[in-house]
Amino acid sequence: MTSPPPTCVLDSFALLAYFQDEAAADEVEALLLAAREGRTRLAISVINLGEVFYRTMRQFGIRRAEEVLGRLEEYEIDVVDVDRRLALSAARIKGAHGLGYADCFVAALARRLGGRVVTGDPDFRRVEGMVPVEWLSTGG
């Protein structure tokens, strides 16, 4: 029996780096290809999807944000809705670790799915002991 592929939960950092062709873009592209080939499972919470949208909108405008959202539909990324259990798990992480609330959803989802967080955001060092983190290049 084949074991399921490993799960990676994407922080907005990862997708923003990819769509803005930043230092980690090639690493994220490799993950997207691995997901397409069934070698990994990618997930993002709807909260963090919204974060990608609003940050793109603020920097590049609504048209670019809608384009990014449309392109995300082309990839094998599970968009996970937030239910009460996930919201409270994120709230517990926020209360205990002081991580930004949107980031808490990444950590909470990774814990729920038994996966690892994919990010370059140094704030995730606060929760590295409770959830595995795959660090992307930051170019710095």
Task: Please write out the topology.
Layout: E1 7-10, H1 12-19, H2 25-36, E2 41-45, H3 46-60, H4 62-72, E3 77-80, H5 84-97, H6 101-113, E4 116-119, E5 133-135
Parallel strand pairs: 1-2, 1-4, 2-3, 4-5
Helix pairs in contact: 1-2, 1-3, 3-4, 5-6
User: What percentage of the residues does DSSP assign to strands (E)?
Assistant: 5-15%
SSE topology string: EHHEHHEHHEE
Largest sheet: 5 strands, parallel
Tell me how many strands there are.
5
Strands ordered across the widest β-sheet: 3-2-1-4-5
Describe the global form. Answer: globular
Helix/strand-derived category reads alpha/beta
CATH architecture annotation:
3-Layer(aba) Sandwich
Poorly predicted runs of 5 or more residues: none
Determine the CATH topology.
Answer: Rossmann fold
Q: Count of helices?
A: 6
Mean pLDDT: 95
For the termini, the CA-CA separation is 43 Å
Domain count: 1
Give the C-alpha Rg.
Answer: 14 Å
3D structure, described in words:
- It is a single chain.
- This protein is α/β, with parallel strands linked by helices.
- It has one domain: 3-Layer(aba) Sandwich (Rossmann fold).
- The protein has six helices and five strands.
- α1 (12-19) crosses α2, α1 runs parallel beside α3 (46-60) and α3 (46-60) runs antiparallel to α4 (62-72).
- The longest helix is centred in the middle third of the chain and has 15 residues, at 46-60.
- The mean pLDDT is 95.
Brief description of this entry?
The chain is of the alpha/beta class and about 140 residues long. The chain has six helices and five strands. A five-stranded parallel beta sheet has the order 3-2-1-4-5, with helices on both faces.
